[in-house]
Amino acid sequence: MGRVSWYLSVAVFLAIQPGGLQGSELRGKPNVIVIMADDLGNGDLSCTGAEDLQSPHIDALFKSGMRFDFAYANCPVCSPSRASLMTGRYPELVGVPGVIRTFPKNSWGYLDPDSILLPKVMKTAGYHTALIGKWHLGLEAPNRPVDRGFDLFHGFLADMMDDYYQHQRHNIEYMHLNNQVIDVKGHATDLFTDWSCDYLKSRVGESSPFFLCLTYNAPHTPIQPPEAWYQKVKQRESNIDDKRAKLVALIEHMDAGIGRVMTTLRETGLDRNTLVVFTSDNGGQLNVGANNGALRDGKQSMYEGGLRVPTCFAWPGEIEENSKSSERMLTMDLFPTVCEAAGVDVDFPIDGVSLLSLLKQDTNALAKRDLFFHRREGGLRYGGLIANAMIRGEWKLLQNSPFEPQELYNLSADPLEADDKKMANKHKYQEMANELRVQVQRGGMVRWQKPIENKR
Q1: In-domain check, residue 24
Q2: Which of 308, 332, 359 is at the close of a domain?
């Protein structure tokens, strides 16, 4: 064997050994898995403080990388946060200020067909792209997953399932394989787990890296865990009520699924160079028993409980185990982070910032920036108008309903958002209100709904 060949062989051998050479440049482009739960509360994991819930597999993922204690969803409801994940933009700037639904008169978003989505960008870098699970960004062309850059879509198109076993919404079958409706049996969480494991097995031996989005419907309503999981929780937690027990069981069932996916990743050997991200699309829904920790309110709300979400990043040899960051990050930051990790240049406008330097601890702080949150909704509570919020440093301005006054809080001194400082600090209030109004104007310039025929 020649000297050069011998050195190359040793380098490759060391690269795959525990503690050996770990540079991503030696291993090639990393695989990427983004796991997004649906309505998972910030306190609804055992590693984030839940005492009546066991989530060993997600806990292990958190321990294997960096945890963000101040991770925010871009919106306190589903579609906008997903739009931010896929585009790296504030959701109202890509036409998704609110929830996309089946019927146009109660749908508050239409994903801009000209926006550039993450799977399409990853494909330019040679990635195979897959979405398994919930989409919720469009029900028809040109806004289905395979229209927007995914090589494979195996999952659910719509906002929520009316039944985890029937997979329908408004009696319409929304479970698809690519663009074809499929009729499958089983609990949706199990199906998404099975399909993800099958996908990982299919990538063994492939020369191209993969980008997989695994987006569970759980623990979104209806709170419908398998009966055996519910009974296990009831037997273990003697003081738990039925409502809470069902939600805990649904989360623990999802945790077990994530455990199976991570086991498959290890068994295939793909884990050695795979970046795994875990997050939620918004806070937990309080009226079904969610726990958002020591935060005010929950899903739908501009208070911290509606926006803060459990989030971590794991990448063997690149991200230190058991590390933490107290920097504020948003869902939209995942886009540039994944791109930079994959060596993909983003040469078009986005609003998110890459977290890779934080993850590798090359720096411990992000550049100062304002954070904005925007939600449009119907019904008598919202009337088709918007609720919004803004964070600047330790200050947070919010309007939780278009029919309620704005409120100003200092999150450092008042993390529970109990002491409105709007009147006591009029200068800060005016300063932030002016900036928030500019962001509202930016969103107002973007079309968010298809033209519909006005039938009375």
Answers
A1: no
A2: 359
Sign of CA dihedral 300, 304, 310, 315: positive
The residues facing 215 across adjacent strands are: 36, 133
Q: How confident is the model at residue 256 (pLDDT cuts 50, 70, 90)?
A: very high
Assess whether 282 and 337 both reside in one domain.
Answer: yes
Average pLDDT over residues 314-319: 97
Cβ-proximal residues to 31 (8 Å cutoff; 6+ apart), any chain: 203, 209, 210, 211, 212, 270, 273, 274, 275
Q: How far is CA 315 from the centre of its chain?
A: 18
> Is there a single domain that holds both residue 322 and residue 403?
no
DSSP secondary structure, 342-367, as one string? TT----S--S----HHHHTTS-S-PP
Last residue of a domain, one of 339, 359, 379: 359
Compute how many other C-beta atoms are within 10 angstroms of the C-beta atom of residue 46.
Answer: 18
Q: Which domain holds residue 379?
A: 371-444
Query: pTM of the entire structure?
Result: 0.93
How many H-runs (helices) and E-runs (strands) does the chain carry?
Answer: 13, 16
**Are 349 and 402 part of one and the same domain?**
no
Is residue 250, in this structure, part of any structural domain at all?
A: yes
Q: Name the DSSP class of 308.
A: B
Please give the helix or strand (H or E) that residue 155 lies within, else none: strand 152-156
Q: Assign 255 a pLDDT band (cuts: 50, 70, 90).
A: very high
Kindly state the greatest CA–CA separation across the chain. Answer: 82
161 and 43 in a common domain: yes
Question: How far apart are the C-alpha atoms of 148 and 142, rounded to whole Å?
Answer: 7
Side by side, which strands form the sheet with 407-410?
Answer: 371-376, 386-392, 395-399, 407-410
What is the tens place of the pLDDT at every residue in 348-392? 999 999 999 999 999 999 999 999 999 999 999 999 999 999 999
Q: Domain total for the chain?
A: 2
Kindly report, residue by residue over 406-426, the tens digit of the pLDDT: 999 999 999 999 999 999 999
Residue 450 is predicted with a pLDDT of 83
Domain harbouring 375, CATH code:
3.30.1120.10
